[in-house]
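Board work, copied verbatim: SGNH/GDSL hydrolase family protein
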Amino acid sequence: MSEDYTAQALAARAALLARPAAPVPHIAVIGDSKVAPDSNIGNRVTPVTSTSVLKGANGYMAWALALCGQRARMPAESNVWAFPGMETGTILANLPAFLAAMPHAPGAVVVDCGTNNILHGTATSSFAAITADWLQIAQLLAARGMRCLFVPILPRDPVQGGGTAFTPAQYDVLDRCNRWLHTLAARSGGWIAVASGCLVDLTNPLGEGAKPKANMTVDGTHPGVLGAYYVGKAIAAILRQWYPPIDLLPTSNMKCQPGAPNGNMLLNPMMVSGTGYGTGTLVAATGGASLTGTVADAWTLDMSPTSGLSCVASLVTNASGQPMQQLAFGGGYTISGAGTYTYAQYARLYQGVSSAALSSLAAGDTIEALMAFEIDAGNSMISFPSLLMRWQGSTNYNADLASAQRDLPGEAISGVMRTPMHTLTAPPAASDLQILATAFLRSYPNGPVSPPGTIRFGRACIVKVDPA
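↓ predict structure ↓
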């Protein structure tokens, strides 16, 4: 890769490096519409304003961060820029402004673009045009001391979304561009990487050209939960090499209290019994559903009124020796009349922050929620887990792995959900701050849904975020 950078790039690098360092490596992502699910307010073509910040389960960066070991952070309110329908030239043109808008200079930028060039069939659709823009993107980031992580052009079948099939020539450009990325990364000295490990999971091996397997996308182009998980898994493998994992989760039941105002605001984050905080609460199931078992002290568990569905709650020790709250789904249910993914079938574990812990909070404090999860292999019921941190009622919340389409694979999965941060404008009142962990179950297409499906939650926290 050339190191003949322009004076403008060098000046920008100096300005960025003069910014305060972040306490943890910050990651950013810029690209076309496939980036949009990673932040509900990241769309730069049709901007959206919201008091809630959501990282969708259709977003591959949400999965990458859940799987990469907690060291890297990607603020969803500032570090996600999506340009639906746009080509590589648009991403390149907006990259300097994107970098300048972030409160902290990122250590690495994930880039996803090129598929729209091929789709549009214009002068910018060629191998030469796409790779020329990619090279300039990589050089611009390198000039600023930032790593570049390319998402390859993902398998695509426009016919699934009602469009026109790609021609062999278009698939040829797609394949050649991805191979060029491998060469670029190989000669970059470790500054550039390609998340190509996802392609074998996403691509239909029987297709002529890079077409996605069934259920990987929502429309032949945009990843659903399944596709996003595999792309995120490939990105996480790279991030774990660049930024070795750390463990930010609680290791004991120490809580926020007088004399310890910066502790975990939750009671019994370790999900055990006999703590003295009062036994956990099972909300009686309705509608022909069955909810039984034991809930961790200070926590409440409820479930949807889904006829035939059962959930058995238990306190277990996982393979690493950590206590966790387990939910084992059984029985079964039949989906009928579904026109899309509604995720009306679920079980939910939650807790409101006590008044004693709330007294430690003031306007200007920034908080976030984290929780570990594990899903056993063979899963055929659980679509995805989700974590919400609510404040001032049910309409104000930040969420990790929020609303989605499609379902997770049957392999064993473990990770850490982490909500976007929220800065308080006033001290919360009693019952104003909550954490909710939900296991959403399959809701589409029509037909029977049967076991197994076992998930565990543990080591939860709502904590103040130290100033950067």
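Residues 33 and 307 are 37 Å apart (CA to CA).
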